[in-house]
Amino acid sequence: MTVVAAAVTVTVCAVLAVLIVVGARSRTADHRRDRATSAALELVYQLKGNRAPREPLAPRGIGLQVVDAGRRPVAATRALLGKGPIASFMPAKGDVYADRVLCPPEGLRGCHSIVAFRVYHPGGDWTVYSASKTTPWYVSSSLVTFLAGTSLLVVLLASLRTWRTVDRTLAPVDAIRAELTEITARRSGHRVPVPENRDEIRRLAEAANATLDRLDAALERQRSFTSDASHDLRSPIAAARAQLEEALMYPAEVDWPQTGRSVLQSLDRLQAIVTDLLELARLDAGKWNDSETIDLAAMVTIELARTERSKRVVTHLRDGVSVRGDRLRLVRLLTNLLDNAERHAETRIDIMVRQEDGMAVLEVRDDGAGIAEADREIVFQRFARLPAGRAKDASGTGLGLPIAREIARSHGGDLTLEDSDGGARFVMRIPMDGRAGK
């Protein structure tokens, strides 16, 4: 930023210096030409009054010379005495004035601006020449020195000002950086300071704090998930261990087949929890199997045909509702919803497939007691189980609905619990497959 500001300042100074030099050169050239013309006119006046001296006086830097009709100098300033005509041109017939730039004129060094006046004389017209040095492009060394010094001073002051401004502006960025370096997984409660002024840096700090809020929330969910997973994994292991220890203490009095079945139930619960945890880990990592076009109505029909349900299942399926995704995961989502509905339904489960505003909708509804509005998000939390759910199925993992929602979200949609006249109504919405809809 400082380099850019300095470059802009240098450019502006250079442009201004050029404009000043051009203007000063034009005014200086006009001034010198006016002085030469005035000196020549004064000499012409003296010649007409027969009062012209052999060595006329002239302002400093002006050379005067009078040439007769035979092109012989008859008067001149001291620097031109004894020299031939400094110019060969004369005013045209009918004119009394002419001017040229000669580089150099006869008897002089360097380029000069020459002014010639025709003067009447009985023996033939005489010519009065007045010479002044031309103005160089830089006008004078003092002007160049002044402009260079002034420009350098302006650049230095602008650079210093810019540096101080940038340093003041970036100070909050350094504070943000220092605070971010202190944040670790164990020290995640820090927030970066937010500057008072409203600019890009304030928005950067606010965005960083919002990101840290999301990270803290994710870490908190991870800690809670780890704690809940540890508790749920310990429960079946502890139950199996207690049963085996008790059986080993009184081996003769134990019904070993029954003990084996009890331990097997604990292992089944442990296996279900581990399987669900692995599925959640894969969903969190975003790992996908091969994607394909899936007709939801056909998927529901096939899944209902291959499994038996204890409750009556009524379908309302619309053909041609297709999505693009992982078939196995969508089947898992449907199975989890059906298992949940089967646990809570009294006699009937309704499944609906339809299209709604470019979204494929899969709805599973039961005729059970339903879920209170305050608990609608709790059921999607990992390992969260409502009292009614524990009473219906004590061996559940509490991960079925969270997995179903993660599957829906991994397909660009969502799974929600919505209002219904009776029972629970789970609605999945996923964008339809573009090619299937054509």
- Spatial order of strands in the largest sheet: 2-1-5-4-3
Order of SSEs: HEEEEEHHHEHEEHEEHHEE
DSSP strand content = 15-25%
Structural class: alpha+beta
Radius of gyration: 51 Å
How many helical elements?
Answer: 8
Low-confidence stretches: none
Instruction: Determine the oligomeric state from the structure.
Output: single chain
Distance between the termini: 53 Å
What is the average of the pLDDT values?
80
From the spread of the alpha carbons, the general shape counts as rod-shaped
The largest β sheet comes out as: 5 strands, antiparallel
Helix content: 40-55%
Number of strands: 12
What structural keywords apply?
438 residues, alpha+beta, 5-stranded antiparallel beta sheet, rod-shaped, 5-stranded mixed beta sheet, single chain
Description of the molecule:
With 438 residues, this protein is an alpha+beta fold. Helix content is 49%, strand content 17%. The protein has eight helices and twelve strands.
Topology (SSEs and partners):
Layout: H1 2-48, E1 62-67, E2 73-76, E3 97-102, E4 112-119, E5 126-133, H2 141-181, H3 200-249, H4 256-285, E6 292-295, H5 296-306, E7 312-317, E8 322-325, H6 327-344, E9 348-356, E10 359-366, H7 387-392, H8 400-410, E11 414-418, E12 425-431
Parallel strand pairs: 7-9
Antiparallel strand pairs: 1-2, 1-5, 3-4, 4-5, 6-8, 9-10, 10-12, 11-12
